[in-house]
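User: Show me a protein chain along with its predicted structure.
Assistant: Here is one chain, sequence first, then structure tokens.
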Amino acid sequence: MDRVMKLFIIFVGSIILGIAFNVFLLPHEVLTGGVTGLAMVLGLLSPINTGIWIIILNIPILIMGWMKLGKEFIGNSIYSVLVTAISMQYIPVVEITQDALLSAVFGGVLTGVGVGLIVKYYGSTGGFDVVGLLITQKRDLPLGFIIFVLNSGVVFISGFIFGWELALYTMASIYITGIVIDRIHTRHIKVSLMVVTDRGEELQTELLSKLVRGITVIEGKGAYSKAPREVLYTVISRYELAMVFGLIKEVDPNAFVSVSETLEVMGNFRKD
């Protein structure tokens, strides 16, 4: 069921992308970034549909991702690219507003939601998403920011071809997309977790079996009750937080938990 749910969410994210492209961005020639943006340029300049160009341009990048990111990831990415391409064949290119800026904003938001959902559930839309994810394996940088930087070249291409006013709309759309992606895809955000518990041994065992993180145990004592306590300290990625909360509630519902955002981690912290 977990696998089916992932594929369903990736499917929904891909359909959202198709709507964003055909309903908001393409009618005003406002592009999205990276390979998809280049596909939009080629789709607007040639009789071949943008969805077909997305498939053609993504082939070499997906081959690279297959070697670096694994078969499941690339399988999900190919699935996402195909769903997006097919949806763009059937979703009509319609102009629901004559305001290009409004279309750029809403198109950027929908694109960010679609890409964020796809990436969160271990897929990508191909293109610079794959390149960005490869970079995040080496550097703790926000994926949305990386994609924004990589996609900036599309702005200049659209400026020369369609005019600089539309290029600025494209920049606004790409920027909004990056912000929304970083609200959904939170792997780069680290949090410090401190748990005060009476069931330290049991909780340690459970957390170590489910996480790839180390845990530091500090012996403590309640200031009022004078009862012995164990304090567990670790640093995790923000996307792991919901799972960790579930484990803590299951083992010790009365545990005291403190979470704070961590700006930087130095040392042996696994980036997964």
